[in-house]
Design the sequence.
């Protein structure tokens, strides 16, 4: 059992440096600066259920690693309560929190063998040698590193080292397993492989996971729930499907999903209680589901930011009831073509499945040509001018 | 295949850089050593005529009471000094490497003894030992202090250790600080989560990871201590009653003004071999404990 509650967690870095380096240019950061100092994490609230896999995701400097390190006890907590299993652990030493952590740079003990590395936390717990040996070998078996047990970390590849680091974390049977960008130092192929292994690993061990990454693919594939952060503020918390289907704001909409969601300036119209959006000359009626949500929120007709995912755009045959753009780049991906076009002053990306195209249509896609495209009302995301989702 | 020409061009640069240094090293290091060995085979007194006496000087070294005594003193001094300096400088380095205010200023302050000349420091301490400490002793009634340390055959060597250590600690501390900075922070953090704190953290993580720096420090410190000269020149001149006569001081004193140039040349040559042997021994023993990271 390991339930973790983060209640109004806050991290402030006191502003001593600012005074010292007056002459230097301001750092490029959008973090909120108050009299206390720089707010690296603001009002973080999350209730993590036992054995849940939580992914913290966001761009560099968004406070995701800081949050993780506060859970680990490597950073002090400036405000709020951190509860593990109903006990407040704000001031509990890292070693007494029953957590293990996997670091981006592995952080293995270079002078110990793989076995030594994995045994070390157990040794500190004064475990009997026989049990220790058994635990290490079990973990090595799970991770497929049995043949490297007597080697030093320097004799291992990056992927193997990260396995050892994971091994060192799981031999202890920790209640909570923290992972700080564990796959960032691996090459793309190895990263995919290790990602699959982490999913498998999760079935085998009973721990609550908190995983930090800046990679939205990792976030989507690993997490039960995803926490999206920006500039120290939580943008949205939800399952991968939720954040993909109902992004809370334009930031989440742009961050989750590859390629990025397309954004247009449009108008939201309301006629007799029916909502539609008007983009250029095209008026699209929203799906009943969306109508209902907007109605519930009492949304008025207004200028909006319209979001549409690249995969939800279709090519239109005729000029009527469609939008038009000019093709800039065409990327053939095999099963699909990624078209980059300029439409209404915005860069627009659309994914066109090649199996739906006739030879003639395929040939008509070339750089500099005009194309017509459309999308249906149930795929549109409606954001206010402040970026917030009006349906939410 | 790489062309021969390309190589020889590189080689020219390497040789161009290497040869001047090699020449200098030969002129001021190897040549004197060989000359020393040559004089060691003679009964040269530093002036006048001399004859070859074969290896007699070298054989006599092992029977000479004064040489034996100086070896005993030098080893005692060097061992105590190496241990004291390394323990203290490691503790200082740990302190100066932690998050404290004015860290950089303090590091500067602790380095000052290193930039002062050995003789200068020696004379300052000589003054302290001769006048200030006895005065304090007399004023407070502490008998141990009321007589100068330098005047006691039992304690004079301790005074030299104090002065030598005061100076030697500076360099060792800097080397240890740079060593501590090579230990990655996340390894310590992993240790913290594994439950490694305090002494265990030092013993299991810090010390093994700074082993290369321990080796450098032990070897350098031992070598410097073996060759102790300035402090003795300034503080005791080998006295009282030759109780603090180091090998270097004996070689200098008896070689230059004692009419034993040939004999002390032999002594110096043997001393050179002893230091090389000790340094090599230390490096092999400690090298096996080092981690290639």
Sequence:
């Amino acid at each position: 059992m390991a339930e973790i509650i983060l209640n109004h967690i806050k991290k402030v870095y006191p502003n001593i440096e600012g005074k010292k380096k007056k002459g230097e240019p301001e750092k490029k950061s959008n973090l909120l600066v108050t009299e206390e100092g720089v707010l690296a994490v603001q009002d973080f609230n999350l209730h993590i259920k036992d054995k849940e896999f939580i992914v913290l995701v966001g761009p560099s400097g968004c406070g995701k690693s800081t949050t993780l390190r506060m859970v680990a006890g490597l950073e002090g907590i400036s405000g709020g309560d951190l509860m593990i299993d109903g006990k407040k652990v704000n001031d509990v030493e890292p070693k007494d929190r029953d957590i293990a952590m996997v670091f981006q740079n592995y952080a293995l003990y270079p002078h110990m063998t793989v076995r030594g590395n994995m045994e070390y936390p157990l040794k500190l717990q004064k475990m009997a040698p026989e049990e220790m040996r058994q635990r290490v070998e079990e973990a090595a078996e799970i991770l497929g590193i049995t043949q490297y047990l007597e080697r030093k970390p320097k004799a291992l590849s990056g992927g193997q080292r990260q396995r050892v680091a994971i091994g060192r974390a799981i031999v202890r049977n920790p209640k909570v397993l923290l992972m700080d960008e564990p796959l960032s130092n691996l090459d793309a192929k190895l990263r995919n492989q290790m990602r699959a292994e982490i999913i498998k690993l999760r079935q085998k061990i009973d721990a609550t996971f908190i995983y930090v990454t800046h990679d939205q693919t990792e976030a989507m594939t690993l997490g039960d729930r995803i926490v999206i952060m920006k500039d120290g503020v939580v943008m949205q918390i939800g399952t991968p499907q939720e954040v993909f289907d109902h992004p809370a704001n334009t930031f989440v909409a742009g961050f989750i999903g590859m390629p990025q969601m397309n954004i247009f300036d449009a108008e939201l119209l309301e006629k007799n209680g029916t909502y539609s959006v008007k983009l250029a000359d095209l008026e699209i009626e929203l799906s009943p589901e969306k109508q209902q949500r907007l109605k519930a929120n009492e949304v008025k007709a207004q200028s909006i930011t319209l979001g549409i995912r690249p995969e939800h755009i279709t090519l239109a045959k005729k000029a009527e009831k469609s939008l038009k753009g000019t093709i800039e780049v065409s990327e053939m991906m095999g099963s699909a073509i990624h078209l980059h076009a300029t439409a209404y002053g915005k860069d627009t990306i659309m994914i066109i499945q090649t199996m739906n195209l006739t030879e003639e249509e395929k040939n008509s896609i070339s750089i500099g040509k005009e194309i017509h495209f459309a999308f249906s009302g149930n795929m549109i995301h409606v954001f206010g001018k402040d970026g917030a989702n009006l349906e939410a | 295949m790489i062309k021969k020409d390309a190589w020889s061009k590189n080689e020219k640069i390497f040789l161009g850089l290497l040869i001047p240094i090699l020449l200098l090293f030969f002129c001021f290091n190897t040549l004197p050593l060989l000359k020393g060995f040559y004089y060691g085979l003679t009964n040269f007194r530093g002036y006048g005529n001399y004859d070859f006496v074969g290896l007699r000087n070298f054989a006599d070294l092992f029977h000479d009471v004064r040489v034996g005594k100086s070896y005993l003193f030098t080893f005692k001094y060097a061992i105590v000094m190496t241990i004291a300096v390394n323990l203290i400088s490691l503790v200082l380095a740990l302190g100066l490497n932690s998050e404290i205010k004015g860290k950089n200023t303090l590091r500067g302050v602790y380095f000052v003894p290193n930039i002062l000349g050995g003789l200068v420091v020696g004379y300052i301490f000589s003054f302290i030992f001769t006048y200030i400490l006895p005065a304090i002793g007399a004023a407070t009634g502490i008998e141990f202090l009321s007589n100068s340390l330098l005047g006691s055959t039992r304690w004079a060597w301790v005074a030299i250790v104090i002065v030598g250590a005061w100076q030697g600690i500076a360099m060792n501390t800097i080397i240890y600080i740079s060593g501590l900075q090579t230990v990655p922070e996340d390894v310590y953090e992993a240790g913290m989560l594994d439950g490694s704190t305090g002494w265990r953290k030092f013993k299991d993580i810090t010390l093994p990871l700074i082993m290369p720096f321990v080796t450098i420090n032990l070897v350098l410190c031992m070598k410097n201590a073996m060759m102790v000269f300035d402090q003795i020149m300034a503080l005791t001149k080998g006295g009282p009653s030759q109780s603090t006569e180091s090998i270097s001081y004996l070689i200098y004193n008896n070689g230059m003004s004692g009419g034993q140039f040939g004999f002390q040349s032999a002594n110096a040559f043997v001393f050179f071999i002893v230091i090389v042997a000790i340094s090599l021994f230390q490096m092999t023993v400690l090298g096996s404990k080092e981690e290639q990271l």
Q: What stands out?
A: The mean pLDDT of chain B is 85. The radius of gyration of chain B is 24 Å. Residues 64-287 of chain B form a domain with the MetI-like fold fold (CATH 1.10.3720.10). Chain B touches chain A through 21 residues (CB under 8 Å).
